[in-house]
Structure formats: structure tokens, C-alpha cells
Amino acid sequence: MSVLKEGDKAPVFQGLNQDEKNISLSDYKGQKVILYFYPKDNTPGCTAESCNLSDNYDELTKQGFVVIGVSPDSIASHQKFIAKHSLRFNLIADTEKIILEQYNAWGEKKMYGRTYMGVLRKTFIIDENGVIIKIFEKVKTKDHTNQILSELA
Fold this sequence. Notes:
Layout: E1 14-17, E2 22-24, E3 32-37, H1 44-55, H2 57-62, E4 65-71, H3 75-85, E5 90-93, H4 98-102, E6 106-111, E7 114-119, E8 122-126, E9 132-136, H5 144-152
């Protein structure tokens, strides 16, 4: 699989959100999309990142963005995560890791000298025409909204 780069057409994905509703990139044609990949619901870094985006949701929507989160967690896990933290956007349950692989967000990780496969925390900014205009591979979980907005200013 080829590695995605800024300027590439974003792969069209499809998956179920927390309400078991089918969500596709094509649903957001004509809108800017913040598509973020995170490892696991209710873990410290993932909670910080998701809450930061949710807390700044009004500003992001004012700037014309739609926010979509993707992790390999189940729909039930997403429902609990959203309820616990009052998240204000869709989370896709990519239990089969199809979208994660499409976006090169599933890969080899290393921790404590051990190598394993896991979610690579990444954020893709996709423009109104479905083109990737920015990829964040080093996400500032506690300040992700400012990281995104300052890079796109």
C-alpha cells in the first residue's frame, strides 16, 4: 500500500459511527474534514485529544470543519466514551482496521523494546474537494485544536 502524502486524494472510507449509522467521506463533500485516528477510548492521551477537539468544536465548525474520530474500538465503547466526556462529533468503530489501513494509521510500534502492531496516532485535514492538505504525525494531544488551526492559518 502506498503512503499517503499531502496533496493526495483522500481515500473514501465508510464505517459505522456510535449510533450504528453509516458514515462516509463522500457524506462531507464540499466541507473540510478533520479525520483523526487514535488508539483507544478512555485512555489518557486519547481522552485529552478527543476532549480538546470537542471543547473547541464551536471554533472548528465556525472555521468550516467537520470532526470525525476513528479507532478500532467497538460501537458500544464509543457510546460510553462520548457519554462520559460529552464529545460532540462522530466516532467511527473501525474494528476491522480497514480505514486505519487505508490511511496508513495501523502499523508497527515500539514500546519498552517490544515491537507490535497498533494504531499510529495521526490527523488528516481534508479540504472541500477531498484532497489531503495537512497530515499531523506528531499530535499534541492536549492542544490539538491550536496545533491544527495554527498550521492552517
